[in-house]
Amino acid sequence: MTRRWMAWGLVASVAANMAVVVAVVAAMLAGGPDGHRGGGSSGGPGGGRGIGGPPGMAALAHGLDRSQREALFRALRGDETLRAGRERMGAAEADVISALTADPFVPEAFEAALVVQRDLQGALAGRGIAALSAIVASLSPPERAAIALRIADRRHR
């Protein structure tokens, strides 16, 4: 694989990861557990609307019952690092754009900007995973089993 194709592969990978993190952060900052203020027209949390985030985390969040999902979203909205994440992601994106439009183009600066963006995405996703893990760790074995059943049911639909 040539260096040029590796750079484009990295760009595609980082762009996909950034989209996931932006979706997680946007869902957390948007409002309620269903990602919409006031529960939306579907009648409440999770009412048929998607939850952003990596597929495994989103599936677990969908598996939570309403009160557990509300606790998760309260924890996510209360996390100052995640709240500041939107601004930090914007700055990281601006650095990528600046590197792309530099004349002359400096591949190393572009790659460095992408690495910063990837690392930020990972840190933000890690905060979300920690919050979800804390909620799940507080549950009883039957509650965790109920989540597993809800996840399996969603998978088979």
End-to-end separation in angstroms reads 40 Å
Strand content: under 5%
C-alpha Rg (nearest Å):
18 Å
N to C succession of SSEs: HHHHHH
Largest sheet: none
Specify the overall morphology. Answer: elongated
Helices, by number, come to: 6
Pick out the low-confidence regions. 28-50
The residue fraction in helices comes out at: over 70%
Mean of residue pLDDT values: 75
Counted beta strands: 0
Which structural category fits the helices and strands?
mainly alpha
Explain the overall architecture.
- With 157 residues, the chain is mainly α.
- 75% of the residues lie in helices and 0% in strands.
- It is built from 6 helices and no strands.
- Helix 1 runs parallel beside helix 5 and helix 3 (66-77) crosses helix 5.
- The protein is elongated.
- Residues 28-50 have low confidence and may be disordered.
List the defining traits of the structure above.
75% helix, mainly alpha, 157 residues
Short description:
By secondary structure, this protein is mainly alpha-helical.
Which helices and strands occur, and which strands form pairs?
Layout: H1 3-30, H2 55-63, H3 66-77, H4 80-101, H5 107-137, H6 141-155
Helix pairs in contact: 1-4, 1-5, 2-6, 3-5, 4-5
